[in-house]
Amino acid sequence: MDINLPKMNGIECVVRLKAQLPRLLVLMLTVYEDDDSIFRALKAGANGYLVKRDAAEKLLDALHDVRHGGAPMSAHIARQVVQFFHRSEKPAAEAEQLSPRELEVLDLLVKGLVLKEVGEQLGIGLETVRTHVNHIYLKLHVRSRIEAVVKYLRQS
Prior knowledge:
The protein is built from 8 helices and 2 strands. By secondary structure, the protein is mostly helical. It has a single domain, classed as Winged helix-like DNA-binding domain superfamily/Winged helix DNA-binding domain (Arc Repressor Mutant, subunit A).
C-alpha cells in the first residue's frame, strides 16, 4: 500500500480495510520517510514499512516475512522507530524474561533485519529464528514484530 493514492490517502485506506478485514496483512511501500507518516501507518495497522528505494532488493523477502508474522521495515525506518522510543518510557519486567539468544534476535529485529537476515547474522536456520520470535511474542505478550520492537524499545 502506498501512502499517496489518487482518491484516498493510503493510511486512511489501511484503516478502512482493517476495519472490514482485521486479519488483512498490509505492507506499506512508499517514498515517505517522515516520523508522522511512519507512525500513522503503523498505528493504522500496517504490518511493515518499506521505502521504495529499498524495495527492489527486499520486497519478496518482506512479503514472505509479513505473511509469516514478521514486520519488515527499511533499516533507516527501523532506526527512526528506535530513536523515537529511546526518547520514551521506562522498562517493564517482560524483557527480563527473554533468554540471551532471544535478546540477540530481538536486537536484530530492532535494527530492521528480516527473519532470513537474522538467521544469517546469528548462523541459525530460519525455522529456529521463527521459534525464537514466537517465544519473544509469548514472553512480551505481543502478536507482531512491530509490537515486540515497540514494547522492547519502551522498556530500554
